[in-house]
Amino acid sequence: MNSPSRVITFVNAAHFIDHYSMLIFAAAVIIMGPALGMAYSELLPYATPGFVAFGAGSLVTGWLGDRWSRRHMMVIFFSGIGASMIAVGFVQTPLQLGAALLAIGLFASIYHPVGTAMIVSYADKLGREMGLNGVWGNLGVASSALVTGVIGQYLGWRWAFIAPGIVTILIGVAFALMVVHEDRTGTRQAAAQARVAKEDMWRVFLALLIVVIAISTTFNAITVAMPKLFAERLAGLTNSPALLGVIAAGVYVFGAMTQYTIGKLIDHYSLKTVMLPLSFLLAPFMYFAATLSNLPLIIASIGIVMGAFGQVTVNDAMVGKYTTEEWRSRAYSVRYFVGFTAAGASVGLVAWLYEKGGFVTMLQTFGALCLLVIVAAIILPREIRVPAAQTAP
């Protein structure tokens, strides 16, 4: 049996890398455009196939994780995504760029159905570990904007992809050496931990479907658009790409704290009790942010990331609580297929809305979509908690 703390540490690092790698382009595109002679709205859609693959690939990777080996899939994740990031640093044409970003998305699709299932299996307190895992992913989002801004400013955009690719491959080597093929006989969360009345299960599926589509689409749109939004709207504070990255990272820290707090609350309260008040955050902050700039925009952005990242933790805990070990990777694969496929479409939508009406139109549109999160929270039934399975000796 692997050491649970060691496995969880590597899986948390993988979550960091997963989100970091998917958002390097969103920050680097600001300086890549002039270098490649293309406008922001022309270059951004090249990320769309990668984001679609991020979700679509999860159906296959989740099945392989359950039927073959989650450990082996994570080895492929580290090596493949690292090599793909390095490849982006050597592209010469837009077509090559699209192909390399597609490869990042394909390998990134491994993490969520496989890595999240591993977290649930080895966790002692599910909510706490899911919250901490979310913090690592959030820090990956924040660090991507920060580190890419700094490296891009001083070393050029190519090294913004090459350097993290090298580090990722080294972490993958350490994982392969220190985590052996998993033995699931001692998984701590083997059984489902919560249930609802049989006649209410349709409400669980409907609520999950609604919130996954709404949150995944909004989450991706915000993380992709924020570097450009800050570059335009924070001109009164700074024009430095590095400092803009620092500000974006600071905003995402609040999202990380929210995920940890929500994770702790999930261990003590029902999902509906946690989800309902949280659902009222996103829509108003998105609406207000549409017309704000400088410090007021930063404050509104903090509210946005708190609402979005908190809901992601609720979504992941919902799947973990209602599924058994045997089906967990496949359940997460469906959840992330739906979520990331919708999120992939949001990249093109961001570019289109930005071209039509700038960030005012874009933020107001996604703010209206976030009203569905409130509907989902109301639909979700109260759960009947059941004891977690005991760890096998």
- Which sequence of strands runs across the widest sheet? 1-2
Helical fraction equals over 70%
| CATH class category name of the largest domain | Mainly Alpha
Q: Which band does the percent of strand residues land in?
A: under 5%
Residue runs with pLDDT of under 50 for 5 or more positions = 388-393
Keywords: Cell membrane, Membrane, Transmembrane, Transmembrane helix, Transport
Organism: Bradyrhizobium retamae
Main location: membrane
GO cellular component, one term: plasma membrane
Give short descriptive properties of this protein.
Growth Hormone, Chain: A, 393 residues, mainly alpha, two-stranded antiparallel sheet, single chain, 2 domains, disordered C terminus
Description:
Mean pLDDT is 83; it is low at 388-393. The chain has a two-stranded antiparallel ribbon. It contains 16 helices and two strands. The relative contact order is 0.17. The chain is an all-alpha fold and 393 residues long. The termini are close together. It has two domains: 1-189, Up-down Bundle (Growth Hormone, Chain: A), CATH 1.20.1250.20; 191-386, Up-down Bundle (Growth Hormone, Chain: A). The longest helix has 42 residues, at 328-369. The chain is globular and about 55 Å long.
